[in-house]
Structure formats: structure tokens, C-alpha cells
Recover the amino acids of this structure.
């Protein structure tokens, strides 16, 4: 791209923003770089929208009003942050000045709508960004004189892509400068060029982390990857300038999406103990989150209650935030006649942090308490919440009373036959009240699979029509939900919004919508491929290896006289002389592979999972691991086992339970099912042996390697192997060693969710020696250089 086209691109961006996107041009002459404000714009907005209060303050303070106001505003911005001040105003001598007005959920308040129209959004070019020097930032975006965003605009035609902008923010921008102070002035920073947009909400020099803000190569399709498609403007990032930064859109993001996320983390105190540290993050929605929530809300507003929506968002999509935003928007949604679309939003999930996060986000946006109620007691508490005016109810699938038996249980009866007349009357009242209200039900796939309680409780609610639970079957939220939907049919007062990364065929039938070819498809999609290419999750198939292939690799290395040997590699090869058919042999392979290749990954914190074919196999694997580790005197690998209920070994007659097989290495006491995730997270344990548990919904970023000794098909294969896809610093190449499944079967399972994935047989190690020979002959390098490099 030439300098002419570079200028054309910058001119195009400015014309779009100042034209159809509704921004005004700002002036650097009005910029106060010491305070990082446009004071004149602040005063103009206050006078126009709150003239009476302004005049009161003028009469009280005279000509010194402006300097006093700026001082008060700066103080509150530094204490409470930009988001809080824009949404709730700032105090000045006992009075509150509003600094922005956001569009209300309905059109009944004409005064607020009029004030909303008076917001002044300005864009200022080449604005001084450091008080101590003359460096400038390409664009500063401000709302009523307060900076809310910055942008470095680059162009590949001059060798300066968005990556150059990222480096500029990391290397040349001082996070301590007023404009860049975390959450106190500009809330988000964009690095953009004609093809891509990336963003960060916190500058931290070289630790600054940018996230993609792109639509994806094929928006809405399974094969969608990173980047952006062509745009009618001629620039792939046209959507950003024309849609995202459009005046109403940007104010909506500021007013109803952004929030400060607070998380408690345990960190080393340097003395061998742990301290609890609270971290804050400014959350700006990623593009697919913004797009999904807005499209869902617009369609629900148009269609009303009684419709179903399937949201197919991959792991790494940020479903917790998407669900939070969607539930908040639906709770205040009004149709074109300004009637409430839903009386109550019910969120069905097992995400422990969702209720508190949702409470915090809504309080930041509305300053309202009691909007969200978490049901943590019984179905009776749930029934009351569904009819008492609570806007958002968070509960679990087994507590949601879809059928009469569930309502009777909520009223106090253990079953319908034993219900008293009073309990039946109470249940009837609840049933009538619930039927008269409209509900949006958001169902989240992330249900804990750590215990069997979900299946048992839900079966009691569903009654005799529930399908029998196979002995070793893991509770599957999607199957349960599909059973409920089929048994009840579509309800005119219920809209379902189902979030899942890997929808089954039946789920698509019940929740999907007819696509272009007439088959059901998801309402909105964020693909696994895009999540991988945008580096939010890892590609678990990149190092998927069948045992046969792995054996051939090791044998080829061992037999090649040109490949240097390592003692540990020879030891491992010994165990591969025959394909292992029994648990003892496989245990040997797993333990030695873990100690040789896995344990030092992720800074020595890497963990592994062994997927077994049944609860009895899990028990026998645990015993085999303990015997082998003890026989070899190993102290660097300790296993835990996870399975439901009690298992009796038919050969020995001994009965086993999960807690009984997991004595705590520290206390000696049995580790309960609820304690197991936390104990496995500790450095005390490295391997988790599972039987139909922890294969779905389990989020442990330290899982690096998986040993598969179970037939896996379809969605189950995708969900199980995806336990390794979580990212953490130092983790780059998860590894899967599969003793059972043919690679082509695994590829076939992943194909519907990640069309670009391909499984290839392992490379021939001899090709490396051939390549080395060719390079030697061409004298590309000197061997002394190779040895010197190896010492680095």
C-alpha cells in the first residue's frame, strides 16, 4: 500500500467517524495533558444539560467555579474511575453533576432520551499523551470532555501494521501518564490497521496483553478463523469504524457492557504460605460477544416469548461474560409497544462465579441491588423467586421445576402421592402464577461433572419418564435439557437461550433454526477454529498421537544409529517392545512417559489425565499406579482417582469409593468429591484417573497431557480431549497418547466443530538426517556454530 493509499485510509476513517458514525472533531488546543481532560467540553456539556445546577454553583463560587469543578472531577476520576463517573456522575459541594446520559431500556422517559441526544462524542487526532514530552497518540476518543479510548492507526503499506501499534503501546506509552492510567481515564486502547483491530484495557509496558477484536474470516460459519472478511468499504476493518464506533453503539458499550471485573487469587507470600490478592480487569466485550448479545436481544424483542435460541460458542469464547450481558439486557427488554418482553430471566448454570460477577456488573451499571437472586437452598426458594418480581434468578438444572412433580416437591411434598391438600394447593397457585408470567431461560453447558448428584436429583424431578441412567454414564446436561424440552414441548411463555460449544444433533433439532439449506443450525457461532487462531485456546489435536504411531516413532529413533541416544529414552523404549494390552503395562508406559516428557512442562507444574473405560478400570488403574510408583521409589508423581458411587471388584470382592481411594498425602484423611478439584490443583498431585467424571466442564489449565484408554465417539471425544485446551503461561503444546481410538475416528469427531483440523501420521525421523546431510553439503552452517547455539 502506497503512502497515498495510507493517507486515503486515514482520511476514510476520519470521514466515517465524523460523518455517519456521529462523532465531532476535537481540538488539541482544548486538551489539558496534565489532567487528561478537555475541560471546555466538560463545561459546555454541564451547562447545556444541567443549566439550573450550573447556575446555582456559579452564584455560589463565582469565577472560580471552572477550576474548582475540574479539581473535583479529577479527584473523583482518580478514586472511582471513568466508568463510574460517566454512569453515576461526580459530587460537587453536595450536589451531583451527571457527566453522560445513556439510552433507557424503553421510550417512556422522554426527558432522559432528550438528554441522551446531547452527549458530545469527539475524536481528536495527534493528541499529546505524556505531560513530560511531545509524543502524541493517533486518536483520542472522548465523551463530554472525558477521554474513554485511544487508537494507534497503522498501515501495512508503509511496513507498519497493527503489530507496530501494539509495540508502540508497550514500548513508548507510559502507563503512569494521566491519559493511560488504568481505569481512571482512557478505558480501552486499540491497535488497528486496514485489516485487523486489537485491543487492551490495561497498559503495562512489555506485559501489556492485546486481544483480537475481529469478526473472523467467515463470520457465523464453523470454518471461521481469525482475521476479517472483505468489507464493502474496501477495508476489512470497516465494521469497526462504521458499526462498533458508531455513536449509539459506542455509548451502549460504555453504558451497558463495560465493567470492572474483580477476582480473588491466591499467591505465594514468599514465606511458604498463600495470600489472597484481588485483581481488577476492565472488561470490554470481544466482537463476537457484542455481536451475539445484540442480535439475540434484537430478535427476542421482535419475536417475544416462546422462541428458542442456540448459541454455539467455543471454549475460550468468554461465555460467562456473554451470559452476564445477555441476562442483564433481557431483564430490562421492552418490545416496540414498550411492554416488558420477559418478567424474569432464569440462568441455569453451575459456574460458581457467575452470580457474584453478575451482581457486581449490574450494580456498576445501574447502582441497583437485589436484581440478581442465587437459588442455593431448595426448589421452594426457586418457586418464590419466579413469582416475586426478582429480575434475574440463577439456579441449577435440577432445581428448575418444569413439571408438576417438581412443583409439588417445591411445596414441601417428597412425591405426588404423599402430598397434602395444602401442599397441592400451594403448588397449584405457584403453577398458575408461573404460567401467567414470561420467562427467558438461559442454559449454560458448563455444569459440573464432579458428582452424580445432578443426575439423581433431576431424575427425581422428571419422574418416571426420565431415561434410566447407565451404570457408568456421566450426567449430561444437554441430554437432560433435551428430555425436558421434548416432554414439555414449546411453551408460549418460555424462551430458551442455550449456550454450548459442541451441540448434539438433538439439541440442534430442538434449539436450532433452519439454515439456508433447511437443516437446523445455531443462531450464533464462535468457532473452535477461530478461538484457536486467536490464541484463546490451544489446538489439542496438534500433538494427538495414537499408541501405534508413538511406538513407531520411538522405535525409529532407537534404531537410527545417527540419532543420539538418551538413557531415559532407551528406558522408555524398553516398555514399548510389545503393545501393552493390560493395565499394568499401560501404567508403566504412562508413568515413564509422564516423568520423561511431561512433569517439567509449565515450569514443573504440568498435570495429566488418564481416561479409563469404566469405574472398575479406574479402580484398577489407581491400584496399579500405586504399586508401580512404590516399586520404583518414585516421589515425583502421585495419582488421584475420580468415579461415582461404590465399585465392587468381582475378582476380589473388595468395595471401593472415590474418597476411600484418595487419602490426602498431607492430612491422611479421605479427600471428598467436593475437595478433589482443589487438591488436584495443588502441587501434591500430578495425575488424575477418571471414569466418566471430569470429562466435560472441568477447567484445569495445568492439564498438559492425556492418556486415553477408552473408546470415544462424536461429541464425547471432542469434550474429553478439549480438557487440555485451556491456556496458561508456559503451556504451548498439549499432548494426547491414545491407546484405543483410530486417529481418523477422532478427526471425524472434531470435524463438525473445527473443519480445518487434520490429523496426520507422525513424521519419519529419518527425514531429519536427510535434511541435515543436505544442509551439510550446502555448507549452510558450521558445526561449531550449532554447538555454540546449543549452549545458549
Amino acid at each position: 500500500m502506497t503512502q497515498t493509499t495510507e493517507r486515503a485510509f486515514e482520511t476514510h476513517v476520519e470521514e466515517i467517524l465524523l460523518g455517519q458514525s456521529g462523532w465531532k472533531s476535537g481540538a488539541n488546543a482544548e486538551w489539558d495533558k496534565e489532567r487528561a481532560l478537555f475541560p471546555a467540553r466538560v463545561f459546555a456539556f454541564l451547562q447545556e444539560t444541567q443549566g439550573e445546577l450550573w447556575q446555582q454553583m456559579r452564584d455560589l463560587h463565582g469565577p472560580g467555579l471552572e477550576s474548582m469543578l475540574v479539581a473535583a472531577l479529577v479527584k473523583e476520576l482518580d478514586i472511582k474511575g471513568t466508568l463510574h463517573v460517566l454512569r453515576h456522575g461526580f459530587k460537587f459541594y453536595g450536589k451531583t453533576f451527571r457527566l453522560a446520559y445513556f439510552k433507557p431500556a424503553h421510550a417512556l422517559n422522554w426527558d432522559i432520551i432528550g438528554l441522551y441526544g446531547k452527549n458530545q462524542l469527539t475524536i481528536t487526532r495527534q493528541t499529546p499523551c505524556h505531560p513530560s514530552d511531545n509524543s502524541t497518540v493517533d486518536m483520542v476518543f472522548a465523551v463530554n470532555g472525558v477521554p474513554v479510548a485511544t487508537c494507534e492507526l497503522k498501515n501495512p503499506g508503509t511496513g507498519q501494521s497493527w503489530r507496530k501499534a501494539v509495540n508502540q503501546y508497550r514500548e513508548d506509552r507510559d502507563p503512569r501518564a494521566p491519559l493511560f492510567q488504568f481505569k481512571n481515564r482512557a478505558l480501552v486502547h486499540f491497535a488497528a490497521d486496514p485489516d485487523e483491530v486489537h485491543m487492551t484495557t490495561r497498559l503495562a509496558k512489555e506485559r501489556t496483553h492485546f486481544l483480537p477484536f475481529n469478526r473472523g474470516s467467515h463470520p457465523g460459519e464453523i470454518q471461521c478463523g481469525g482475521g476479517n472478511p472483505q468489507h464493502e468499504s474496501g477495508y476489512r476493518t470497516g465494521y469497526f469504524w462504521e458499526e462498533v464506533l458508531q455513536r449509539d453503539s459506542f455509548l451502549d458499550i460504555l453504558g451497558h457492557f463495560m465493567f470492572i471485573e474483580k477476582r480473588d487469587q491466591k499467591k505465594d507470600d514468599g514465606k511458604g504460605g498463600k495470600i489472597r490478592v484481588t485483581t481488577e480487569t476492565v472488561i470490554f466485550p470481544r466482537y463476537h460477544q457484542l455481536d451475539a448479545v445484540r442480535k439475540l436481544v434484537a430478535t427476542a424483542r421482535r419475536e417475544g416469548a416462546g422462541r428458542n435460541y442456540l448459541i454455539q460458542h467455543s471454549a475460550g469464547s468468554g461465555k460467562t461474560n456473554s451470559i452476564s450481558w445477555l441476562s442483564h439486557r433481557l431483564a430490562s427488554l421492552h418490545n416496540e409497544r414498550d411492554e416488558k418482553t420477559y418478567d424474569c430471566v432464569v440462568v441455569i448454570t453451575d459456574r460458581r462465579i457467575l452470580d457474584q460477577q453478575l451482581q457486581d456488573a449490574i450494580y456498576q451499571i445501574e447502582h441497583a441491588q437485589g436484581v440478581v437472586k442465587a437459588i442455593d437452598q431448595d426448589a421452594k426458594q426457586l418457586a418464590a423467586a419466579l413469582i416475586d418480581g426478582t429480575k434475574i434468578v440463577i439456579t441449577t438444572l435440577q432445581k428448575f421445576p418444569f413439571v408438576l412433580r417438581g412443583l409439588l416437591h417445591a411445596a414441601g411434598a417428597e412425591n405426588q402421592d404423599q402430598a397434602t391438600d395444602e401442599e397441592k394447593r400451594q403448588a397449584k397457585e405457584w403453577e398458575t402464577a408461573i404460567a401467567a408470567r414470561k420467562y427467558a431461560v438461559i442454559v449454560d453447558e458448563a455444569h459440573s461433572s464432579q458428582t452424580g448428584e445432578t443426575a439423581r436429583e433431576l431424575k427425581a424431578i422428571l419422574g418416571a419418564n426420565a431415561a434410566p441412567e447407565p451404570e457408568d454414564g456421566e450426567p449430561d446436561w444437554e441430554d437432560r435439557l433435551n428430555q425436558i424440552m421434548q416432554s414439555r414441548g414449546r411453551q408460549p411463555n418460555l424462551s430458551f437461550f442455550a449456550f454450548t460449544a459442541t451441540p448434539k444433533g438433538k439439541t440442534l433439532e430442538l434449539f436450532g433454526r433452519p439454515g439456508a439449506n433447511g437443516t437446523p443450525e445455531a443462531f450464533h457461532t464462535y468457532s473452535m477454529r477461530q478461538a484457536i487462531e486467536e490464541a484463546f485456546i490451544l489446538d489439542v489435536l496438534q500433538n494427538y498421537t495414537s499408541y501405534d504411531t508413538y511406538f513407531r516413532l520411538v522405535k525409529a529413533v532407537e534404531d537410527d544409529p545417527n540419532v543420539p541416544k538418551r538413557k531415559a529414552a532407551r528406558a522408555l523404549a524398553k516398555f514399548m517392545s510389545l503393545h501393552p494390552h493390560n493395565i499394568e503395562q499401560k501404567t508403566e508406559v504412562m508413568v515413564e512417559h509422564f516423568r520423561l516428557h511431561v512433569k517439567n512442562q509449565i515450569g514443573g507444574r504440568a498435570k495429566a489425565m488418564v481416561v479409563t473405560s469404566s469405574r472398575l478400570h479406574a479402580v484398577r488403574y489407581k491400584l496399579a499406579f500405586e504399586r508401580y510408583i512404590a516399586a520404583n521409589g518414585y516421589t515425583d508423581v502421585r495419582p488421584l482417582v475420580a468415579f461415582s458411587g461404590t465399585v465392587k471388584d468381582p475378582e476380589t470382592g473388595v468395595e471401593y469409593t472415590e474418597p476411600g481411594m484418595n487419602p490426602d498425602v498431607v492430612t491422611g484423611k479421605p479427600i471428598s468429591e467436593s475437595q478433589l478439584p482443589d487438591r488436584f490443583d495443588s502441587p501434591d498431585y500430578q495425575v488424575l484417573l477418571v471414569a466418566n467424571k471430569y470429562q466435560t466442564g472441568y477447567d484445569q489449565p495445568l492439564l498438559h497431557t492425556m492418556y486415553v484408554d477408552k473408546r470415544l465417539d462424536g461429541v464425547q471425544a471432542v469434550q474429553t480431549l478439549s480438557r487440555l485446551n485451556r491456556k496458561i503461561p508456559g503451556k504451548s503444546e498439549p499432548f494426547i497418547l491414545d491407546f484405543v481410538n483410530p486417529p481418523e475416528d477422532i478427526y471425524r469427531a472434531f470435524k463438525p466443530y473445527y473443519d480445518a483440523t487434520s490429523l496426520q501420521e507422525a513424521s519419519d525421523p529419518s527425514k531429519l538426517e536427510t535434511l541435515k546431510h543436505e544442509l551439510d553439503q550446502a555448507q549452510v552452517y558450521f558445526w561449531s556454530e550449532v554447538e555454540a547455539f546449543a549452549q545458549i
